[in-house]
Each structure stands twice: as structure tokens, then as C-alpha cells.
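Q: What would this chain look like folded?
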Amino acid sequence: MWLDGIVGTLPGYGFALCFGLTLSLGCGKQPSSAEGRAGDGGAGPIAAQAGFIQLSPRTVSLYGRDVSIATTSKIFYNFRPADRDAAERPVIVLFNGFASDVVRAFGTGPYSVQPDGSVAANPDSLTHTANLLYLEPRQAGFSYDLTSGRAPSADDCSQDVFSEYVDAADVLLAALQFTRQHTALKGPVYWMGESYAGVRISWIVAYLRQAWALAPYQDETLQSALAGVDRDRYLSGQILLQPWLVGAAHASAIQDACRSPGLLAAVQASLSGACTDTDACACARASGRSLYDYALTAQELDARLFAADAAQVSPARAEALYGVRFESIAGLAGSERALGFKCSAADPQTPEQSALVSLLGPLPAGQSYNLAYSPLTPGKGSTNPDWRTQDLVGAAFLANAEQVATFVTDGQRDLVVPESALAPALRAISGAVTVSESPFEIELGYPSGAQALTIRHYASSGHMITMSEPRALAADLSAWLDEHSRSSR
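A: My prediction, written as C-alpha cells:
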């Protein structure tokens, strides 16, 4: 779990650089015309599809140092069109912290993973309202990297490459490439993310705004890709599900929230016996409850997430979730995928993938088709990132929120990123910006005027809103999107 290191203990995970690029190049089976394919220029039907968006090697600047990203990145995407009028409907680009496994599995698309691991139709699919573009960042999920004429090196897996700044730039480059290749899609673009994705979206929005001074990062390739882009279309809004947003100040505010009497009382009320701790997070942990949803045991929550990941690598169940067959995805077959690599190795949280291997072909030893994390994940590579030790991302979020419509959730059983910590964290870094709260919004007072962050409360949910309250979230998002669509006319 990606934030246990802040409010609890993060289990140690192995980090391995896996080589073994020995198989010859081959081509995966191409998608059928009914499924569409990346790069069709929008000429084909607007239909479910999945594939890879290729990002070429590039050199970027991080804290004034040149960083060579020497690999070609194959960014996995999965597109689910709106149920009707797809050409004019909004496009929501979505992901959770380090992949798209949670948001794809639960409550967003036409099918969802059930508690027993089966897959069933989702009556509350967001495709009733919008097109959905699931993107998996560098080496997360099915994404992988390729080298040219050499084995991977430790530099290919460095924290400079897997930094929050490159991560956001990669995802933005992939989204721009997808929409450029699918010109039939005309609607406004929204960014939706869970958890750490609040950091990713904050930097994406800052880059789109050309607010380069906010980040210790320069990227000529991304700047060139943004030239001539209708940036207003891509700045339609940000939808933040239990987001990490502010940086080190957020961590401090979360610790204070855990010590609040109201949150402690709520946790104690969910337990069968009394808890002697005066800290809600410590109380939940000592009682075996999950910090992600204190109404569930840690084992119950972990089992739901494991079942979701298992369903997404099961060919028999995944077709409904992805809308395509794995064998139809160009670039995924073992003959081609075996030439690529992931820096991270599978661990006990990774479902076995023998069915995928049987279908698609073997991979080199130590490699996996799908990992629901990347070397950016704390405990699996990243050790001391800016988003945990500084407040740069908080400054970016405040600057973005002055111009970009913002929707934030409050899963009231979440102890990892409780919404009650957001306003105090923002106050700690806000400077001349005033921060005030009401039941349904946080108001930010800028010299240019006030802007409101929409807050939606979910009493029966913890961190994973799409898992626990998909119907309420779908209704709230539909209303919010309609409201902003009317106001932009």
C-alpha cells in the first residue's frame, strides 16, 4: 500500500533489475477493425481498444541536471467509449496512484470486479457520461520499457527517471498522443486520479498551464508537444479521489487529523471492543483494521485488491474489463514483450500470471506482464521523493486551482488521506491565499478572487471510493460535469 510509510509501517519490498532480453522480435496479433487501434487518426469507429503508446528516449533537466531517459517507453492504454454521442462527450483520463488497476476494476467502466473476484456488469458505469481513457505510467500495469542494442542498466531504473516530474510528463505526452491520433473525439478533457495521482495531476495541469517555474524540471520534448495544443480543452477540470496534494505539509496534517477526537470516536464506534489509543490511526492499526477503510480488516481490504488484480490478468475475466481480448493487443504478445523489461520484480502482492503466459508466450526469468506498481512506488524503488519531503506540489496545486475546476472526494472511513487534513495542509503553505471550509467546498481566496473546490462526502467509503460507493460517485460526477459543461458554453 503506497502511503503506509506515512501513517503506518510499509512492508519491505524487493527491487530487482531484470534482464534476459533473449527472444527474437515478433509482432502481436493486430486488433480487428471493430476494436480499433491506436494511430488510426480517428478514421475508424469509436470503439473499445487497448494498446501501447510509444514514447521515444529524451533528455530532461531535473534540478538543473541533465537526465537521460535512454529507453523507449511503451505506455499501456485502455479506451472505453461513452455509451452514446462519444464524439462529443468528455474524455476522462484516469488512473490510480501507480497504475490503473483499482479504478478499472471498481465502479468506473462497464464492468466491475465483485468481492468474490468475478466480473459483472456495472450499472453505474461512467461511460453513461463520458469516454474513459485508462493510462498506465512508465512500467506500471502492462507498461514496459525497451532498450536498443544493449541490456538495461541501473541508470534506466534510477529515481531520476522514476520521479514525480517525469511520471507526470510521460502520462501527459501519452494522453496528447492518443487524442492527436483519435481526432473523432472532440469533447473536453478531464483528469481523474486516486491517491498519489493527485501529485501526477497537479504536475500535468502545471505543465499544461506552462507554469514551468513551479517544478524543478524542464522537458523540451513535452514543451514541443504542447505547442499549438488547445490547452483550454485539456484544462477542463481535475477529479481527485482521496488525493495526496500538498507534500510534507500534508503528512503533518494527516498526523494531526489522526489525533482528532472526532475521528478517534468514529474508529472506536466501528470496533466491537474499546481501543485505548488516543490516535485514530494507531487505534485502527492495533485493532487489525485497514487504514484505507477502518470498517474493514486489513486482510479484507487486501483481499479485495488482490482479487481485482487477479481478475485483470485472467484472460477469461479481463475481456469484459478491458473491452478487448489480450491476444488482440499489438505489442503485448510474448514475442515482442520479452524484448522489454521492468525494473521491479513481482512480490507476494502480485497475482500469478500463468494463464497470460500460456496465452501470450513466456517472458525472461524475473519478468511479469503486469505489475500494479512501478519503481516510483515507495518501498519498491522510490525512497525519499519530493512529494513526501517538500511542498512543491502543494504550491503547484494552489496555483492550478485558481484556474481549473476541481472536484475532491471525502471517503469518511479513509485514514490514509482523510479529507479533513486537506484544508489545514493548504493553510500551512498558502501564503497570501486564504483557505476556508464549508460542508461542501473549500474556498481559496486569491488576490484575483475566490475559487471553490467541490467536496463530495461518502460516509460508507474509505480510500477506494470507486469500490465502495460507485453509484453515488457516478451521480455526483455526472452532475458536476453537466454543471461545468453549461458554464463553459
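The first helix runs from residue 4 to 7.
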